[in-house]
Design a protein that fits this description.
With about 900 residues, the protein is mostly helical. It is built from 47 helices and 10 strands. The strands form 3 sheets. The chain has a 5-stranded parallel beta sheet with strand order 4-5-6-3-7, with helices on both faces. Pfam families: AAA_16, GerE, TPR_MalT, WHD_MalT.
Length: about 900
Amino acid sequence: MAPRDGVVQATEAPESPPVDIRMYKLFPPPSYAGAIQRSGIVARVLREGCEPVAVLQGPAGSGKTTTMQQILQACSARGWRTAWLSLDEADNDPQRLEAHMEAVAARLERRPAGGRPGGAGTDAGRDLSDWLLDRLSRLGEPVAVFLDEFQALRSETVLHFFRALLQHLPARVRLFISSRTLPELGLATLLVNRQAFVLRADDLRFSCDEAAQFFAADTTLGLRREEVEAIHQRTEGWPAGLQLYRLALANPAVRDALDGLDSDGPRELAEYLTDNVVSLQPPRTQAFLLRTSLLRRMCAPLCEAVTGFGDARLLLAQLDAAGLFVRPLDAGGHWFKYHGLFASFLAAGLRRTSPEQAQEVHAQAARWYVAHDLHEEAVFHALQARDWALAGQTLSAWASRLIASAELVTVERWYEALPFDSVALQPALAIKAAYALTFLRRRDKLRPLVGVLAQHRGRGDVGTTTHPDFALAMAAVFEDDLHGAVRAVDKQEIWHRADGGFPAFELGAAANLLAFGKVAAGDFESARKVLAMARTHNRRGGASFSGGYTAAVGGANLMAEGRLQEALAHLRAGLSEPQARLDKSTAATALPACMLWALYEANELAEMETLAAASRQAIAESAIPDFIAIAHIAISRMHEARGRPEQAAEAVEQLERIGHDSHWPRLVRLADWERVRRAIATGELQRAQAIAERIGPAGQAVPPGWVLLAEDIEGDGFGRLRLAIHRDDLLGASRHFAAESSRQPGRLQRQVKLLVLDALLQRRKGLLNAAHRSLRKALGLARPGGLVRSFLDEGPAVVEMLQHEHRQLLAAPEDPVAGDHDRGARRYVEALLAAAGAGLPWPAERPAPRAAALSPLSEREQEMLLFLCNGVSNKEIATRLFVSENTVKFHLKNIYAKLSVGNRAQAINAARALRLGA
């Protein structure tokens, strides 16, 4: 897209709002005449076998940026691919940082910024570090990435991303970081492992010879060697101090004072020299410097607006040529910025001597930025001018796009900079801030806003963002009051309004919430209709952000109906949409949370583990209790199934901590019921009983007949029934089963789990025929969707019953009418037994079929089938056989066809039955 004042827009999808990319942040500082080449440092950081990560750490003015620019030039001269990113406060918003890191990748791949290469589907379920590492590893040439001003980053999410990046840098990739402070990147470990090294301020200082070379470049000074040595001693080789001296030495008083500055520290010396440098300029230039020093970046039209001078372009060029601490931010020389140290001294002087003039400059700058639709700078200057009304109005207009594109941390940051009373006077801003704080789970910050919005409940209009009910409903979900939230959003506006922009975002969010309530009520068809309306509103509002939540609720709806394969396809499609990989908002995390549940039920544990590693922490910090619960319980059971009891317990403990920290007692109860289930599975019945006795009563009441989403995986109903069965409280278990079965009989996955538990109950009663009737009912309901873990989670007794069922199916005579159905039932049971790792008990009267009855497998296919039977993943097979994953998939497709199976589990089962995998 065409640049707009140094900004391009990275569009995630045709309907989604763009994330602005500040192109000036990607522009390395130009080299300037007279700069001393730090050849020793450059040689040191680029030596053969050097550590891949270099950190240049020192205070402002220590030459970090200039040195990095020279390293970049040296890398470019060697033919390396290079990219530069200047970081700032705004990059603490994960979404904003992601857009700029993708722009860095675009620079390295030599393609335009603002788009993502390849199909978005390749990125499903991956976080930004995985994505970027993959892009870097595909580059066939050496790569150098430069990150300037790293001290601006404080967000733990963002720092976590960089830690992951540093720990897994591909070969041939170098990373250079400049920072005023040592970044919190796990440097101690990196240093010990020789993955990083640090150049500190002492390493960056000019030597006396370098200082002499620096001053010799200006022939007008004529400094003697002893004068150079005196200056070097006063500045301690500090590059900014040397530059200030060079500029100030035109004043004879400065030269005469060389012997009288011994007691001054570096900052005092810099301030003294800055005053002298400015005093040497013509009065008009001095006025220009002072007024423009308040600008974080500047262009000629902006400078003219705040100074009244008509020749700002010429003045900027003159300042740049004179080396007066100003540098261009783009190749065209449109935008500039002062060195931070120089600007801070000038701005402090103006605020001290003429605070009214400083406030006037900020007010003029704010109005100029508003007129040019540059919202962030407009808000900053309006706040500095104490024009709360303008700051709030601008933030409100900007927040419409920020929220829809999930830049929630940015909304939070600027909202906090405003006085609360001024926000309360602007309903639209209060509503938008409430959404951001809800999605970010900022309970303490949200509560005062809820109090303000509640005073206007039922009033206003969605179209003008003055109707607070939908925002209050989202806040109610945060308080785990789904029923109250659904009552608030069940309004005709969802069906009949066709607004665009932020009102459409609100309507889409409300429709998502209403659909979630329909899922809880078991009204799955109504949920589908409401979700279709939500997708329409999402498109109108350009909100791919809330589209993630729409996809998650749709997946939950399918899961509740037992349509597992459809749910997996639906959720994979949702994950292939360009959701923000660093974003921690509700919408961004509900989707992987639901996918973890589906993958666990399908027993796709390898894929699940990859997704869990990428998304677990983000899910833990999201705002919808049910999605947090299903993800953590699924992760715990995955670890349990893979033989990691400690990690399984840790996932349950994390769920409990979240429940306590967020005042969600329901999550604490769910964690305890999962502990009860685990204790039963290990035969610790007394412990299970003790845990159950400590579980308190249910908190917030829900309407009769409702089943909250987390109850589909665990909760009071399953927990009390399971415990009664294993304690041989058969009468109590029968009562629990009857009560639970009557709740939403159309909730198919839940009914399958209840029928499996009933099969165990009847078995305990000694009623084996009744037990197998319940098991067959469960199998019949579960087979179309391919449910797996609903059976296996109940332990060895269910596996034994499945083996018996398999023998019965084999022993039954062929029915020409029901033949296909019977074969399908047998294959499904075989797949379940294969997933359980159980053998197939072939009866003596029916020998196992031989492989000769099949189309013969090629030698390579037999080799792959052997790997398959040993649980080797596609990626590992490709590595061991030195082929691509696509080649593996091609051969597996042929194997499935020859074995007449449809998936990996069935292929393993068939191979064992046919004695091919031995």
